[in-house]
Design goal:
By secondary structure, the protein is α/β, with parallel strands linked by helices. It has 22 helices and twelve strands. Helix 16 packs across helix 18.
Length: 506
């Protein structure tokens, strides 16, 4: 007897801003040349990292909290169809309207129709990774609808005609002088004498946004959590812009990935400790907004929620990669990643940069989609991301699995074996037999002929040149380990035999 879990038989491929349009190594080389970017990133990531270490060390049960968060998320993934139905029933019972979006195109169309019903041509937004993922702003702009980002960092990126480069701090690649120049050029009524003093910059943004908040009839938000038990949605943020968006307008449209569900209200307590400490290095969020349906005397009267798939059921079907859906978008993995710190987020191409993006984007789109096959290689596999992740996503393990999927996909698509195929076939042949390996090791000392007087190999041909292009290889030893061991054993037995003879002679 088969049981329908509500998951489509044909997995939806993610759409929108989930694709790297050039291979990561190509993009990374270009970004590495930007010294200002590297300086900005180093300063910001190290500041956040140090703050996180301090507040995490205050909790003696931090590892227990991580384990609890991981187990709750595992439970959600195992029961996702059931929990989504429970959430829908609770949400609609309290006056909300649920919309299901299979992909980015459907989600954008739903949002567009809801805005058009109001007759408005300008909306305010609280930071939402889901709306960035589906390219909502670009879609609305093409239809004559202006979507104004109200998170300060998102506003900086938007006014600078730029793209976010960090999950938590989208403008992490900008310093305050660059921000001053953007505000002077893009914000109406900004003083021409505006300095790069943070207080002045914040005041200029506040004056600009306050007018937008007070006049907005429609707001679009994301959601950090959705509680299945009560139909509650939650947004956590640091500036209060989210509170303004979810309380002042008449119509509130929320876009949330289906993986953001939590089973029970009390589960929220675990994540309200994990998230702020892991993201901003704070003990608690300055603003936590939770709403359950509508109130006829207060707040938005038209409440809509779009539950977004966009490749998430595809990721859920991957038994090794599904834990990537546990991510709570804290960015802790990015702040400790040596690769991200040097390249920044733009090198990853997708809305989701850093270690989590290197696994999440290929899982949502499929490893063969455009240039996403290069993303799992954007890592040294040092494991720092796994140690920092508040829900214990084993990012290095998933990266290795995705690399294997990429190799298999490339191998299947080739009609003629390439250099790597030949090398791997040869390695398989050699390593499957001790006799063969011993025979090949006999020729190892011949490699010393490639080394110079300094006994280093600085150049190798073909695919091996990728190694020597950035490092030297020590010259091989004069004999293999196997031969050295055999010689040692021979010498040891000879000594034992001599000792026994001497004893017998006595």
């Amino acid at each position: 007897m088969s049981i329908n879990l509500g998951i489509p038989a044909v997995r939806t491929r993610g759409e929108g801003n989930l694709f790297a349009h050039e291979k990561f190594p190509t993009a990374a080389k270009r970004e590495l040349m930007n010294q200002q970017l590297r300086a900005n990133l180093r300063h910001a990531t190290h500041t956040i990292r140090d703050k996180r270490i301090n507040v995490v060390s205050e909790l003696p049960d931090w590892e227990d909290l991580r384990e609890s968060g991981s187990r709750i998320k595992e439970n959600v993934m195992a029961r996702l169809p059931e929990l989504l139905e429970q959430f829908e029933a609770a949400f609609t019972a309290r006056g909300g309207v649920i919309h299901w979006a299979n992909d980015a195109s459907e989600a954008n169309e739903i949002v567009t129709n809801l805005i058009r019903e109001t007759g408005e041509t300008e909306v305010v937004k609280v930071k939402s990774m889901a709306t960035q993922e589906i390219g909502l702003n670009e879609h609305l702009e093409g239809l004559g609808i202006n979507a104004i980002e109200t998170d300060l960092a998102e506003l900086i990126v938007q006014l600078g005609h730029d793209r976010p480069s960090h999950i938590l701090v989208p403008a992490i690649h900008k310093n305050r002088t660059q921000i001053r120049d953007i505000f002077r050029a893009e914000i109406p009524n900004a003083s021409p004498d505006l300095t790069d003093n943070p207080k002045e910059l914040a005041g200029t943004a506040r004056a600009y946004l306050r007018e937008k908040f007070l006049n907005a009839k429609v707001a679009i938000s994301g959601a950090n959590f959705g509680i299945a038990e009560t139909g509650t949605l939650g947004v956590v943020e640091s500036e209060g812009n989210g509170r303004m968006c979810v309380t002042l307008p008449e119509t509130l449209i929320t876009v949330m990935g289906i993986e953001k569900i939590l089973p029970r209200w009390e589960d929220l307590g675990v994540f309200m400790q994990l998230l702020p400490r892991s993201s901003t290095g704070e003990r608690m969020n300055p603003y936590s907004s939770l709403w359950t349906g509508k109130n006829s005397q207060d707040g938005p009267q038209n409440i809509h929620l779009i539950l977004l798939d966009n490749g998430r059921t595809r990721a859920l079907a991957d038994k090794n990669g599904r834990s990537a859906l546990h991510c709570i978008r804290c960015s802790a993995c990015m702040n400790v990643c040596p690769v991200y710190e040097r390249t920044g987020g733009h090198a990853y191409g997708s809305t989701y940069p850093g270690p989590i993006g290197a696994i999440l984007s290929p899982l949502l789109t499929g490893i063969t989609a455009e240039e996403n096959s290069s993303l799992p290689y954007a890592s040294s596999l040092c494991g720092a991301c796994y140690d920092a992740c508040p829900v214990k996503i084993n990012i290095p393990e998933i990266l290795v699995d995705l690399r294997a999927q990429d190799v298999e996909a490339q191998h299947e698509s080739r009609k003629v074996p390439n250099e790597m195929d030949v090398l791997m076939k040869g390695a398989s042949w050699a390593l499957s037999s001790g006799t063969r390996l011993k025979f090949l090791e006999k020729g190892l000392p011949a490699g010393r002929l490639l080394a110079g007087k300094d006994q280093k190999i600085s150049w190798l041909p073909g695919i091996a040149g990728g190694w020597t292009s950035s490092r030297d290889i020590p010259a091989p030893p004069q004999s293999s380990f196997r031969d050295q061991w055999a010689q040692r054993e021979k010498s040891r037995k000879s000594q034992l035999s001599q000792q026994q003879s001497e004893k017998q002679g006595e």
